[in-house]
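Q: I'm teaching a short session on how sequence maps to structure, and I want students to see two examples side by side rather than one. Could you give me a first protein with its sequence written out and its structure tokens following it? Keep the formatting plain so it prints cleanly on a handout.
A: Of course. Example one:
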Amino acid sequence: MATNNIVIGIAGSGGDGIISAGEILVNAASSEGLFVFMLKSFGAQIRGGESSVRVRMSSEPVATQGDKLDILVVLSWKDYMKFQSEMLLEDHVVIVSDEEDKFPEENIPIPSEKMKNWYKVPFTKLANESAGTTLAKNIVMLGVISELFNLPKAALQNSIKKKFDKNITEIVEKNVKALKAGQEYVKKEIRKQDSVLFEYTPGEPRIVMEGNEATAFGAIYAGVEFYAGYPITPSTEIMHWLSIYLPRYKGVVIQMEDELASINAVIGASFAGRKAMTATSGPGMSLMAEGLGLAGMAELPIVVVNVQRGGPSTGIPTKTEQADLMQAIWGSHGDAPRVVIAPSDVEDCFDCTVLAFYIAEKYQLPVIILSDAFIGLRKESINPHRFKDLKYGFKKINRRMTPTENELEDYARFKITPNGISPVTWPGIEKGMYQAAGIEHNEKGFPTSDVSIHAAMTKKRWAKFNEIKREFSFERLYGPEDAELGIIAWGSTKGAVKEAVTKANANGIKVQAIIPQILYPFLIQPFYDFLRRKKRVIIVEMSHAGGFRRYLRGFIQFGDFGVKTVSYRQTGGAPFTVGQIYDKIVQEYEKKDA
């Protein structure tokens, strides 16, 4: 079975170098011009435990991780058991495992008909013989599968050299030997009995980025000057990346003692006139709720990234979910305005972060980027020309509006204006000093308990939403607009929805999907346009409680359009597959006239 689209799953223990092997593989494939998608998964332990990686590579663009594995590589069957529900297998699957793993075969939870193509390879022995260390067995494994399935061999060798270029030459040479040892073993010892073979035509190299890296990159492009945060899975890579690169642009990164300190430091930096941000996950967002209210009351621009994970409480730190939507929109006491943006893939993380700074600075309020682990921790290939024509640039990304000399003569920091935006200063500007506090205040910033002033200032702060709704409209639409069956989804579910909609329309099932990027304030007109021809709409989300559906129903009276809504949701952990969405489309399509 020759194919230009292949999905490989690798599982083992935390010390087997599973993630490193996946990264070497995707970097090699992308250097050959292939489209890649890598999803990593690991236990919640701080050290040790299990890890797995899924790599999809194709000659055509891909939007998901692939539903089932064409190739399963196991370095430890015991650890594979912890991922079996996530690593579904094709009927033609080929299995490659370490023959030195003594796990009882009768306990392997794979049907016998899917184990007919099973190669057992002495990875550990080959690693010791070629590199002098068992740590190289992940590289031996790459050599084996590259020879068995025609993966990019020369590119793999170059990727290994690049991976270890900061180490001494001896380490690079040992890893190259390990790679070749795996390839030679296949040539001499294995008689290929399966038909899986990857075929492709090399093309222009592509960039590979992780979602969290793209978020950090977008922040630097937008001109971020200050980052304060506390490490929390699955957002920590944002801080790691910025700690390396932001100082090169004269920015500051501080690891704080907790999320309370983080958001307060960010608010302080913003008060001082700096573009500031932080990143966290669900538990950290809970601690930041009061700070978000303070930023809204003081009208200070900040950007907060929530890379969602399974919850509630500590939940499943290393798995994904979309259950923080209501927290992001409403998670504060009082009427505290904020904007919520949801990226839908790795490339979109860059765009959303740039957009977040633009909105925060222009409208002087908090902006939340609602990502999740499925986006934040995965790698995707990006066209290298993608960043040559950007919508915003350093000079075009608005800084907050500052007062004129006349306005400074009798400076009113919170002056009521038609669009709610008031000129803002920072310490050191002559005649521009003002009090920024969480207590209600008048136009000068002086505390007040006057209810009429509170009403006026609340109206002022929320007036910004009218301007935001006038300036922005960003929704992705897939499928024919005259389709009577629709899908509404958000964030990381986009990939599976997009591929399922494409497949359905190719099979004669007319369906259209809409994926909003700005979730709050709610931009209602695009949804009205979308619903006019629909009879039935599926609302897709990774949330048991169905928060997205409830949110939509607060703004849209679906019955007024004669539209029946169907909630299709699941708890987090494993993201939706294309097959799941496609089967739901078929099921609801058959009911569309009911």
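Q: Perfect. Now a second example for contrast.
A: Example two:
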Amino acid sequence: MPRPKKSTPSSENNEAVIGHVLLDNFINEDDLIPILTDQDTAKDITSRRYVLIEETRERKKQYFAQIVRGPLHTPEWGNVSEGLNTFPIVKGKEIDFVPSFNSYYLAKVLGEIVETEDGGKKSKKIQTAFTRPLPKSRVSYIPKDELISFLALVSSTEKPVGILANYGTDDPVPFHLDDRLINRQLGIFGSTGSGKSNTVIVVAETLIQRGWSVIIFDHSGEYYKMAEPSSEARLFLPFWRNLGIAPCGVEGAQFRGFLPVTDGRSDQKAIKFSVKSMDIPFLLIKAMMAPLSDAQNRVISRIHRDLGVKYDGLSSLIKEVQNIPESGNSGDLRHMSKPILLEKLEILKRMGIFDAAVISQNPGKPPLSLQIQPGNGGRVDYLSPELLIRRSTLNVIDLGNTGDQDTINIIGLSILQMLEIAKNKINSAYKDVKVAIFLEEAHTFFSKEHAGRPEFAEALTSMIKRIFKVGRKFWLNPIVISQQPADIPPGIMSQCVMRISHQLSDERDIQIVGRGSAKRFSDILPDLRKGECLITTPEILAPQIVRIRPAMAKKVDPQTDSFE
């Protein structure tokens, strides 16, 4: 077979031919096509690039494919192990020539390219390929505009979240996110130092620019300075700046930092908040009092039931237990140990997160939650939909100084429940505001091993499952973020239809993330460089290896930066 010439144009796209389809052997997989090229052309062939395969014989079919292996090199004549071929290689500098060789590589067919016509306008699309390219078919790279169309990538004039890593920076192929992709439910995974936090900021910046209300549960205090521009100027290389990526704080958004009332920091710009104990399911209140004796459990349950609509959380429970006569002679009252039961309730009160806010009693003014602004003199309030669900707003729930996992889970549960109630109504006042909730360290919410109490893990998992199922109809979208995806319950992981996976080294994590369409890419997950990720979603034709851009807003290093 004659060698392909780089100068030979393909009939359709004027791109240089980079090879021709070879004959198969019996070990070829059905969708893998062997392609032969010459040693000069092989130098420029890059793995994972997309190619057009054009038949030149009777059928004239075109195929969309991706290079998945090679190029591999073999002598032009004779066997690889023959001395004529190996001697010049082994002797190195003593013999300064290399025997003539051919190169071949394997491409995976992703579909057949067909022409369609709509209203007199012709276009190309990808459909399932039920045939394979014939030998001698020509192979060439695909122009960028056609590539974006074939892959069903988002085409936008907005700032991209990154570029396709396999296309380099000379002529980068941008990767954009739109509302449709986020509404498919997103998971962001990666080990420590893989670039996961940078990706969180990049996605948040993108959504804020698109008018979303963004809420971040910040476990480490990494995001509370996003109103400031990035201080990592060295990351903004010329090709990023050419794409409009330069240091910049969150633009066009009202940035708010929130601190739980238990946090002792005196940041005057932050909004301090508390949680209503009556909003926490009573079963979880009892779980935090555990262990309860059978008698204590029956007494406290009966008190809650008898209070009915008068139940207003811990204060009403404490009052009713205090009112129990010391000489109670019924079975439960005699065995419940009133002082111990009161102490368990007081311990919950001393956690400090419950019922610490003061709502304005002036009937002529709205609740304090509507008046509160950063720097409001240290007031404490309950969080509300009016405060959190606002267009182009970034809300960072800073949990960096909250070491108690029960407190973290209480905060997460109360906010998620409040958002679900506010959004999941057909006639909701907030139905037109798209809400994204970034759940950092999600395994600490959902995993019984990490959540502290299995009851909390079960309650949070059940709530997120419910939000995943119906929330996307109302544009309420949790974003699951974790360095330990294997510890996320299967019912949650299965709902993360779109996944951004950074470097992972644990075999369990790789197996969980590398399922479905990502399976044939799972072997690259341990080798991804910092900032690179594998993105999978049914909205795109194939998984993409993407180099995420640097975040324009500031990311805090909790080990070196202080809270000012």
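Q: What should students look for in example two?
A: Point them to this: The mean pLDDT is 83. Also worth mentioning: The first helix runs from residue 39 to 42.
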